[in-house]
Amino acid sequence: MVRLSKWLLKAGTGVNKTLSEILVCPLSKQALRVCEEPPSLISDSIGVSFPMKDGIPCLVPTDGKILDTDDTMKHDNAADDSANNK
Amino acid sequence: MRRFLFSQTSCSLLRRQRRPKDIPHRWFISSTSFSTAEYEDGDAFQNSPSKVKIFDRHLKRTQRARAAWLLRPNDSFVHAVAENLVDRLEDCKKTFPTALCLGGSLQAVRQMLRGRGAIQKFIMMDTSYDMLKLCKSSQRDSDNENIETSYVVGDEEFLAIKESSVDLVISCLGLHWTNDLPGAMIQCKLALKPDGLFLAAILGGETLKELRIACTVAQMEREGGISPRVSPLAQVRDAGNLLTRAGFALPGVDVDEYVVRYNSALDLIEHLRAMGETNALLQRTNILKRETALATAAIYDSMFAAEDGTIPATFQVIYMTGWREHPSQQKSKRRGSATISFKDIQKQFGNGS
After folding, report:
1. Per-state percent for chain B, helix, strand, coil, to nearest 5
2. What number of other Cβ atoms are within 10 A of residue B111's Cβ?
3. How many domains in chain B?
4. What share of chain B has pLDDT > 90, as a percent?
């Protein structure tokens, strides 16, 4: 377990402390949840997951993937979502 | 600019029929809707936020990724603007421990910072991942300050920052590509802590006026019509409205004009590509005929060339400053609370003059 977490830290998949305090979902402005595998940030309020490349989170609405309730990922244009919500 | 509008109206008088399926006439439809979009942009400040989409954000993202590869390390124009912007931090006694930098020329701002404003945490946000990668790698090479830098890929129109969490928001030449500029500024204001500072530099309406004129004349000659080649840019008078509309206290706007000289019009286009400032209007035509391009360069040369053969390009930069309200900021006193009258002042100073 210790070796696994060391490997995760080396791979740089974690979000640094500054960002984890400041970042929120770009569409709903609610808090984000960090997911280790695959590295991504999940917004539970609207059910969208934002990918993370090399420790850099991609919080552009068009990059988000909508999470189905049975955990299958579907690629969708989350920007349409925001247009409907707003 | 006036010439451009005049040729617009003359075009619409000559041709009344709309043929939307006919490709060669597509430029015509785009030019009429462009003129209304331009006015709508101005009117949007009075009405509720309009959902008018002027810029293609996805294309802008791709262009910025390309600009990351073409970036010139010592671009004098971009560095001059960044220097001017960051210099304003020296005018405040306040320190800004957490700062957010939005799009535009991120690297230039980072380089020009040099410890001003006592920034400890610097968050860089851009729509393009490649641009951030470039900043990250150049940061590793030349790190001489103890600033903790973080990178986030994000859109200025959908700001992913919690309310009241940053002390300073800087945007150097990035906000003039947003579709909803008032909305983006409101989100910036919300992200700021009370007594937080918002500094932005955007391109103004006078920018590239020579290029606008040359493009219009060339297109009128060669193609008999015009399509938008230069994006609609904010006017100085609107910048103040933008700040007050977003709810910033103590707004301040100033303008600076930079004239950059190039050896030829094609050099200007290369520079624009390197800055990521090429055309990303939704209503652009993707076709640019070789003849039209050469005609534009020739007209630019003949109309604006200086004696030594170089051509000037004007960049009008509007610097906007705003603070998030805080009880410590100066406010005008309530009406009727005056304790001294003008007569007293006159008595005091009138004796001397």
Report:
1. 45, 20, 35
2. 20
3. 1
4. 26
pLDDT tens, residue by residue, B146-158:
788 889 999 888 9
Can you give the residue range of the structural domain that contains B188?
53-207+233-259+315-325
User: Does residue B15 lie in a domain region?
Assistant: no
Distance CA B39, CA B232 (A): 10
Q: pLDDT grade, residue B36 (50/70/90)? A: very low
**Smallest Cα distance from B160 to chain A, Å:** 4
- Which of B225, B284, B211 has the alpha carbon at shortest distance from B7? B225
Q: Searching chain B, which residue's CA lies closest to the CA of residue A55?
A: B151
Contact present, B108 and B87 (Cβ < 8 Å): no
Residue B240 lies in a domain: yes
Report the residue count for chain B.
Answer: 353
Interface size A-B, in CB pairs within 8 Å, comes to 68
* pLDDT tens digits, A76-85: 444 444 444 4
Reduced to 3 states, what is the DSSP secondary structure of residue A50?
A: strand
Does residue B342 sit within a domain? no
What does DSSP assign to residue B26? H
Tokens standing for residue A44: 């539970």
Side chain identity, residue A7: W
Q: Which of B53, B148, B158, B189 to mutate to test the interface with A (most CBs of A within 10 A)?
A: B158
Place of tokens 């209007």: B281
Which residue in B202, B132, B188, B134 sits closest to B157, CA to CA? Answer: B188
Q: Is the pLDDT of residue A61 over 50?
A: yes
ipTM passes above 0.90: no
Check if CATH label 2.20.25.10 holds for domain A17-66: yes
Return contacts of A70-79, CB within 8 angstroms, 24+ apart.
Answer: A73/A49, A78/A27, A78/A46, A78/A48
